[in-house]
């Protein structure tokens, strides 16, 4: 095909979610509900960390960054998904698609860095409690969080620039419910082997290294917990670690299933859409509840804020 005569597309058509009988409306209503829960849960954490100085500690600084990421991650595509469903026009402009693609991976890569830092924070707190306060200060945690955002921005910028300049001549139909790199590259013209190799390299370096670091951190944490003399402390620590590991398994498992492949030309994305729902909708909604549901400091901060609010509006 002569790519020099290629007419640049101005919009893409998104096929959307898989159709399950007449349950499409229920499915989109469920996604809207999960999105609201994600906004409320993560928004509450951000507000509480800002207004309550007792929560301005390294662990909660990382959690508030994770909440910002989850809100940004889901907002990148869910509003557009719902608007397309209501308008029955599954289209997205070219520049909007490229922006959606970039911010989706920008927030995604940042999340893996932050999860690694949360694992490091928990490792230091449980395995080296006497040195924790001097090693992991609020200043250090802020610098690590900034490094996570900057590292994500710089690691995927070149890849997105290359994707934006690819020719799209044969089709403008994307087999997904948002602009994901695999379906976008599948309809792209030209030689995409370099961009595939670069994406696969980023996947291995960022995601797999983050997974390895997280697993090793929790193995040390579990070994330390087993040496605790108090059975009650062991049970509480194991309960917290188990809930964290559930999120880790869901997040990394779904991402590895979707993205850990060297080529996209022969890939079928229909089966990956449901897995993508777990990665992009379910996990961001669960994160604030998993990381804080057994956290007494957060509970006390919320109840304190509610009591202040009730006192500010006395009964007539």
Give structural attributes.
Olfactory receptor; mainly alpha; three-stranded mixed β-sheet; transmembrane; 11 helices; about 5% strand; about 325 residues; globular; membrane; Olfact_rcpt
Q: Major sheet, described briefly?
A: 3 strands, mixed
**Could you give the distance between the termini?**
77 Å
- Tell me the Rg in angstroms: 22 Å
Strand order of the largest sheet: 2-1-3
Instruction: Give the uncertain stretches in residue-range form.
Output: none
Number of E strands = 3
What is the beta-strand fraction? under 5%
Judged by helices, strands and strand pairing, the structural class is mainly alpha
- Our count of helices gives 11
Q: What would you call the shape?
A: globular
Give the mean pLDDT. 81
Order of helices and strands: EHHHEHHHEHHHHH
Helix content: over 70%
